[in-house]
Design brief:
Elements: H1 9-16, H2 25-33, E1 38-41, H3 48-58, E2 62-66, H4 70-81, E3 90-93, H5 99-110, E4 116-119, H6 121-124, H7 127-134, E5 138-143, H8 163-170, E6 175-179, H9 184-193, E7 200-203, E8 211-217, H10 222-231, E9 237-241, H11 245-257, E10 262-265, H12 271-282, E11 288-291, E12 304-309, H13 316-323, E13 333-339, H14 341-350, H15 356-374, H16 379-386, H17 403-406, H18 411-429
Parallel strand pairs: 1-6, 1-7, 2-4, 2-5, 3-4, 5-6, 8-13, 9-11, 9-12, 10-11, 12-13
Helix pairs in contact: 2-3, 14-15
The structure holds adenosine-5'-diphosphate (ADP) and magnesium ion.
Length: 430
Amino acid sequence: MNSDSLDLYGPLKKFFGFSQFKGLQEQVITSILKNENTFVIMPTGGGKSLCYQLPALMKEGTAIVVSPLIALMKNQVDAIRGISEHHGIAHVLNSSLNKSEVNQVKEDIASGITKLLYVAPESLIKEEYASFLRTQKISFVAIDEAHCISEWGHDFRPEYRNLRHIIKQIDNVPIIGLTATATEKVQEDILKTLGMSDANTFKASFNRPNLFYEVRPKTNEIEKDIIRFIKQHPGKSGIVYCLSRKKVEEIAQVLQVNGINAVPYHAGFDAKTRAKHQDMFLMEDCDVVVATIAFGMGIDKPDVRYVIHHDIPKSLESYYQETGRAGRDDGEGICLTFYAYKDIEKLEKFMANKPVAEQEIGHALLQEVVGYAETSMNRRKYLLHYFGEEFDEINGLGADMDDNTRNPKKKSEAKDDVVTILDVVAKTNQ
Ligand code: ADP
Ligand code: MG
């Protein structure tokens, strides 16, 4: 099959109703249709799902999609079912299915109806499923959120480590890895662990020109600062991230008594409360969600106007992911972070019981966070440099969209900055 001459626009229109590909989608899909290992690095919202959904719908057999979250899989399956008359075109295979449901899934795969089979990594390991899949026509395996493979990523899942081994046993099919994490370390880890150093790699720019980056000193006045900021943006949607569940509840309450329509969200609430608060935010029954990092993955609210970090995240990847939830619609998106060095020390302390290797990684990631927080440089340039991308701070898109560029620090202050960073280095070398 000569996929270069294959019409991709017809299927794009037919299945998804779109007339244009977004970014590198067309190149990625062409690579997958050639049965080549493919590695896709695109920021969140870049359109990664379509990169495997479209070729899955076009190819013979069933594509296996590995994804870490059941909620993410369900959303995608519902969306795909909406474009077909066959309910069986997409399925999720997981432990919540009963025997007859599993049989239905198997039947649909065997008869060739099922184009997309979503599985959690822990299900794929099950011999019962693996032995069945071994006998079927599998078109390719897509591994979404592939950074979960790497301890250098912001969301390490040990089950992801075994994927290569299991996929090999199923069939010698092409592998598609997809991630929104752009650091070299994570990319290397993904390619190595999935055994696909030969993969065609497609990397999109990580610049988000509409996001405004600001870091402010964290003082005793932080609650007032946050309230003031929110009141300056009445009726707008925003997220306030805190490190601990306790802090989440505290801040949510403080906002509420100050007349701000806020709800708390963290993994300590039961599923019903979490779903309720998430829906309130999505349906605009509240303006602000105060949350731990448990809130966010897979939440696609396009008009979040600000993301406030009450506590600085433990890595720049996390910072980028979390701030990235602002301004998905390309409208205003303010990313305001409150920073005090003692929060870094707190994060260091949390790691104290972890294995040494993990501590070293955690420490290195934190040093990058300190560098970012304390820099007097263009923040977009700093952040993109961290992701291996050179940013033109004069002509680049969004070049003046940060505090340092809008209000350059005076020489003397900037010099203080240097001393602070050296202080940090001295401290950590002790
Ligand atoms: P990612 O997984 O990279 O975060 P998604 O796959 O969730 O991104 O896609 C983000 C949004 O972009 C979705 O709303 C999707 O419908 C939309 N999208 C994807 N491809 C296109 C396209 N070619 N044209 C228009 N919209 C698209
Ligand atoms: Mg995605």
